[in-house]
Amino acid sequence: MALVEARNLCKDYVAGEITVKAIRGVDFTIDTGSFVSFVGPSGSGKSTLLNMIGCLDPPSQGDLVVAGKDVTRLDSRHSAKFRGDHIGFIFQDFNLIPVLTVFENIEYPLQMVQNWPVEKRRKRVEELLGAVGMADQGKKYPNQISGGQKQRVAVARALVTNAKLVLADEPTANLDSRTANRIIGLMKKMRDEFGTTFIFSTHDTRVVESAEIIFTLEDGVLQTKNGNPGGQHA
Ligand SMILES: Nc1ncnc2c1ncn2[C@@H]1O[C@H](COP(=O)(O)OP(=O)(O)OP(=O)(O)O)[C@@H](O)[C@H]1O
C-alpha cells in the first residue's frame, strides 16, 4: 500500500527577485514498510523533498499524499498535528535536549504531543530503550554518551509515538563508518519489528548501499534508469 504519493511536486524558494527552483516536478510512490534513500549531490534538493514529505514546508505546486491524507495545502496548525500523529524525525546533529536524560528525551513526544499518562509512558520508553540497545543508559544525559548512542536515542524518540513514517535527513553525517552502518542496521531492524517506513537522505556511499530503494536527485529532478522513473531497487 502506498504511504507517500507525489505527483508533479515542485518547490520554489523565492527571495526578492530571485527564485530557486529546488524541486522541479517529481513523481514517486513509496509503499508502507519501505526502506528508502534519496541520494544526490549537495544542493540537489534532498532536504527540500524530505521537508515537504514531513509537512515542514508546503509544496509550491503538485500533489502530495502522506498516510492517506492530502497534505499539499495543510495550514501550519494542521501540519503540526499531522506530524505529531504520524511522523518521526531523525536529524544529523541528533537534536537531543541537553538538560533532559536519555529516558526523558525519548519520553518527550509522548508528553508534549500525545499526552500519555505516566505509567503508559514509562512502559513505552523502556520498550524503546531496549529495542535500540540502550536499556541501561536511560539516566544519562546526552553529553555523557557517544555520537552513535545519541543517534540510537534519536531513533527511539522518532519511533516512540508509533509513527508510521520516519524521516531522517543525513542521519549518519556526523558518525564514523562503523557507527553509521550500525545506525542504518538499527533503523532496518526497527522497520522489521514495527513496520515503520523509513525515508532518509544521504550522499554517503556507505549508507546508500544499505537502502532497499534508491531515488536519485539531480538539480531538483528525479533521475531515470533504464526508462524507469525514480526508484531503483538496490
Ligand atoms: N530556505 C531556502 N531559501 C532559498 N533557497 C534554498 C532554501 N533551502 C534550500 N535552498 C536551495 O534549494 C536547493 C536545494 O537545497 P537542499 O538543501 O534541498 O539540497 P540538498 O540536496 O539537501 O543539499 P545538502 O546535501 O547540501 O544538504 C539549493 O539550491 C539550495 O541552495
From TrEMBL:
Residues 4-234 form the ABC transporter domain. Keywords: ATP-binding, Nucleotide-binding, Transport. One of its GO terms (molecular function) is ATP binding. The keyword Methyltransferase does not apply. InterPro entries: AAA+_ATPase, ABC_transporter-like_ATP-bd, ABC_transporter-like_CS, ABC_transpr_LolD-like, MacB-like_ATP-bd. GO terms for cellular component: membrane protein complex; plasma membrane. The keyword NAD does not apply. PROSITE patterns: ABC_TRANSPORTER_1, ABC_TRANSPORTER_2. It comes from the Bacteria. Belongs to the ABC transporter superfamily. Macrolide exporter (TC 3.A.1.122) family. This is ABC transporter ATP-binding protein. It comes from Desulfomarina profundi.
